[in-house]
Amino acid sequence: ISARSVLVWSSSGAHAMSLEGKTAVITGGASGIGFATAEEFLKGGVSKILILDLGEHLRADQESQLKSCNPGASIYYSKCDVSNKSNVEKAFRQDAVKWLGTIDILVNSAGILNESDPAGCVAVNLTGLIECTLTAMDLMSKDKGGKGGFVVNISSIAGLEPMPFGVTYSATKFGVVGFTRSMGVSLW
Protein backbone atom coordinates (compact mmCIF):
# COMPACT_ATOMS: atom_id res chain seq x y z
CA ILE A 1 0.00 0.00 0.00
CA SER A 2 1.36 3.40 -0.95
CA ALA A 3 0.33 6.97 -0.25
CA ARG A 4 -1.60 6.82 -3.53
CA SER A 5 -3.79 3.86 -2.64
CA VAL A 6 -6.30 2.73 -0.07
CA LEU A 7 -7.02 -0.70 1.36
CA VAL A 8 -10.34 -2.09 0.13
CA TRP A 9 -12.12 -5.08 1.59
CA SER A 10 -14.45 -7.17 -0.55
CA SER A 11 -15.83 -10.69 -0.62
CA SER A 12 -12.60 -11.78 -2.28
CA GLY A 13 -10.42 -10.32 0.48
CA ALA A 14 -8.40 -7.15 0.93
CA HIS A 15 -6.50 -5.41 -1.84
CA ALA A 16 -4.98 -2.01 -2.56
CA MET A 17 -6.91 0.36 -4.79
CA SER A 18 -5.15 3.28 -6.42
CA LEU A 19 -6.70 6.71 -5.94
CA GLU A 20 -4.82 8.07 -8.94
CA GLY A 21 -7.22 9.74 -11.37
CA LYS A 22 -10.35 8.82 -9.39
CA THR A 23 -13.30 11.11 -8.67
CA ALA A 24 -14.84 11.43 -5.23
CA VAL A 25 -17.84 12.99 -3.50
CA ILE A 26 -17.57 13.68 0.23
CA THR A 27 -20.61 14.68 2.29
CA GLY A 28 -19.82 16.77 5.34
CA GLY A 29 -16.51 17.49 3.65
CA ALA A 30 -15.95 21.03 4.92
CA SER A 31 -14.89 19.96 8.41
CA GLY A 32 -13.75 17.12 10.64
CA ILE A 33 -13.41 13.62 9.24
CA GLY A 34 -14.81 14.69 5.88
CA PHE A 35 -12.23 17.45 5.40
CA ALA A 36 -9.38 15.17 6.53
CA THR A 37 -10.60 12.54 4.07
CA ALA A 38 -10.62 15.11 1.26
CA GLU A 39 -7.02 16.05 2.10
CA GLU A 40 -5.86 12.43 2.09
CA PHE A 41 -7.72 11.59 -1.12
CA LEU A 42 -6.14 14.59 -2.85
CA LYS A 43 -2.69 13.60 -1.59
CA GLY A 44 -3.44 10.13 -2.94
CA GLY A 45 -4.02 11.42 -6.45
CA VAL A 46 -7.78 11.90 -6.74
CA SER A 47 -8.21 14.08 -9.84
CA LYS A 48 -11.62 15.60 -9.08
CA ILE A 49 -13.39 15.99 -5.77
CA LEU A 50 -16.81 17.39 -4.90
CA ILE A 51 -17.34 18.48 -1.32
CA LEU A 52 -20.91 18.73 -0.06
CA ASP A 53 -21.72 20.65 3.11
CA LEU A 54 -24.10 23.22 4.59
CA GLY A 55 -22.13 26.43 4.01
CA GLU A 56 -22.45 28.60 0.93
CA HIS A 57 -18.86 27.80 -0.07
CA LEU A 58 -15.53 26.63 1.26
CA ARG A 59 -13.55 29.28 3.11
CA ALA A 60 -10.54 30.59 1.20
CA ASP A 61 -8.13 28.98 3.69
CA GLN A 62 -9.87 25.61 3.30
CA GLU A 63 -9.72 25.81 -0.48
CA SER A 64 -6.04 26.76 -0.32
CA GLN A 65 -5.28 23.93 2.10
CA LEU A 66 -6.98 21.38 -0.17
CA LYS A 67 -5.33 22.77 -3.31
CA SER A 68 -1.90 22.42 -1.66
CA CYS A 69 -2.55 18.67 -1.29
CA ASN A 70 -2.82 18.22 -5.07
CA PRO A 71 -2.36 21.37 -7.17
CA GLY A 72 -3.45 19.58 -10.35
CA ALA A 73 -6.77 18.37 -8.96
CA SER A 74 -10.13 20.00 -9.56
CA ILE A 75 -11.91 20.84 -6.31
CA TYR A 76 -15.61 21.62 -6.38
CA TYR A 77 -18.08 22.56 -3.67
CA SER A 78 -21.85 22.40 -3.54
CA LYS A 79 -24.10 23.51 -0.71
CA CYS A 80 -26.12 20.46 0.27
CA ASP A 81 -28.28 19.56 3.24
CA VAL A 82 -28.23 15.76 3.09
CA SER A 83 -31.47 15.63 5.07
CA ASN A 84 -33.23 17.29 2.11
CA LYS A 85 -33.85 14.84 -0.74
CA SER A 86 -34.10 17.57 -3.40
CA ASN A 87 -30.69 18.94 -2.24
CA VAL A 88 -29.22 15.44 -2.57
CA GLU A 89 -30.72 14.95 -6.03
CA LYS A 90 -29.32 18.30 -7.24
CA ALA A 91 -25.89 17.74 -5.71
CA PHE A 92 -25.48 14.32 -7.29
CA ARG A 93 -27.53 14.32 -10.50
CA GLN A 94 -26.62 17.86 -11.54
CA ASP A 95 -23.44 19.05 -9.80
CA ALA A 96 -21.52 15.76 -9.57
CA VAL A 97 -22.46 14.75 -13.12
CA LYS A 98 -21.48 18.20 -14.49
CA TRP A 99 -18.21 18.55 -12.60
CA LEU A 100 -16.99 14.98 -12.11
CA GLY A 101 -18.55 13.14 -15.02
CA THR A 102 -18.73 9.90 -13.07
CA ILE A 103 -18.43 9.09 -9.38
CA ASP A 104 -15.78 6.55 -8.37
CA ILE A 105 -15.98 7.03 -4.59
CA LEU A 106 -18.62 8.37 -2.22
CA VAL A 107 -17.72 9.10 1.39
CA ASN A 108 -20.72 9.76 3.63
CA SER A 109 -19.28 11.71 6.55
CA ALA A 110 -22.04 14.26 7.19
CA GLY A 111 -23.36 13.86 10.70
CA ILE A 112 -24.68 15.65 13.76
CA LEU A 113 -25.05 14.87 17.45
CA ASN A 114 -28.17 16.72 18.58
CA GLU A 115 -30.27 14.95 21.19
CA SER A 116 -32.66 17.91 21.41
CA ASP A 117 -33.69 17.33 17.77
CA PRO A 118 -34.14 13.57 17.31
CA ALA A 119 -35.87 13.90 13.93
CA GLY A 120 -33.07 16.11 12.61
CA CYS A 121 -30.43 13.72 13.90
CA VAL A 122 -32.12 10.77 12.15
CA ALA A 123 -32.64 12.82 8.97
CA VAL A 124 -28.97 13.77 8.66
CA ASN A 125 -27.17 10.74 10.11
CA LEU A 126 -29.29 7.94 8.68
CA THR A 127 -31.87 9.01 6.10
CA GLY A 128 -29.45 11.44 4.43
CA LEU A 129 -26.73 8.81 4.29
CA ILE A 130 -29.16 6.31 2.74
CA GLU A 131 -30.39 8.83 0.14
CA CYS A 132 -26.82 9.82 -0.79
CA THR A 133 -25.75 6.19 -1.07
CA LEU A 134 -28.69 5.10 -3.21
CA THR A 135 -28.42 8.14 -5.48
CA ALA A 136 -24.66 7.70 -5.95
CA MET A 137 -25.03 3.96 -6.55
CA ASP A 138 -27.61 4.67 -9.23
CA LEU A 139 -25.13 7.00 -10.96
CA MET A 140 -22.28 4.52 -10.48
CA SER A 141 -24.34 1.71 -12.01
CA LYS A 142 -22.71 0.22 -15.09
CA ASP A 143 -26.21 -0.35 -16.46
CA LYS A 144 -26.69 3.43 -16.50
CA GLY A 145 -23.31 4.49 -17.88
CA GLY A 146 -21.33 4.52 -14.63
CA LYS A 147 -18.08 2.67 -14.00
CA GLY A 148 -19.00 1.10 -10.68
CA GLY A 149 -17.44 2.48 -7.54
CA PHE A 150 -17.06 2.42 -3.80
CA VAL A 151 -19.11 3.82 -0.93
CA VAL A 152 -17.57 4.58 2.46
CA ASN A 153 -20.06 5.21 5.26
CA ILE A 154 -18.64 6.85 8.37
CA SER A 155 -20.26 5.58 11.57
CA SER A 156 -19.00 5.65 15.14
CA ILE A 157 -18.22 3.41 18.07
CA ALA A 158 -21.74 4.51 19.08
CA GLY A 159 -22.96 2.31 16.22
CA LEU A 160 -21.41 -0.73 17.86
CA GLU A 161 -21.80 -0.02 21.56
CA PRO A 162 -24.62 1.77 23.42
CA MET A 163 -24.05 5.43 24.19
CA PRO A 164 -26.44 6.36 27.04
CA PHE A 165 -25.74 10.12 26.84
CA GLY A 166 -26.59 10.19 23.12
CA VAL A 167 -29.31 7.62 22.51
CA THR A 168 -30.67 9.10 19.28
CA TYR A 169 -27.18 9.59 17.87
CA SER A 170 -26.31 6.03 18.85
CA ALA A 171 -29.49 4.71 17.21
CA THR A 172 -28.62 6.48 13.96
CA LYS A 173 -25.11 5.07 13.97
CA PHE A 174 -26.42 1.55 14.65
CA GLY A 175 -28.65 2.19 11.63
CA VAL A 176 -25.65 3.19 9.51
CA VAL A 177 -23.84 -0.02 10.47
CA GLY A 178 -26.92 -2.12 9.69
CA PHE A 179 -27.55 -0.39 6.36
CA THR A 180 -23.91 -0.68 5.32
CA ARG A 181 -23.63 -4.34 6.28
CA SER A 182 -26.90 -5.12 4.50
CA MET A 183 -25.80 -3.30 1.35
CA GLY A 184 -22.54 -5.22 1.46
CA VAL A 185 -24.31 -8.54 1.04
CA SER A 186 -27.13 -7.41 -1.25
CA LEU A 187 -27.32 -7.91 -4.98
CA TRP A 188 -26.50 -4.29 -5.82
UniProtKB/TrEMBL annotation:
SUPFAM superfamilies: NAD(P)-binding Rossmann-fold domains (SSF51735). Belongs to the short-chain dehydrogenases/reductases (SDR) family. One of its GO terms (cellular component) is cytoplasm. One of its GO terms (molecular function) is oxidoreductase activity, acting on the CH-OH group of donors, NAD or NADP as acceptor. This is Alcohol dehydrogenase. PROSITE patterns: ADH_SHORT (PS00061). InterPro entries: NAD(P)-bd_dom_sf, Sc_DH/Rdtase_CS, SDR_fam. Pfam families: adh_short. It comes from the Eukaryota.
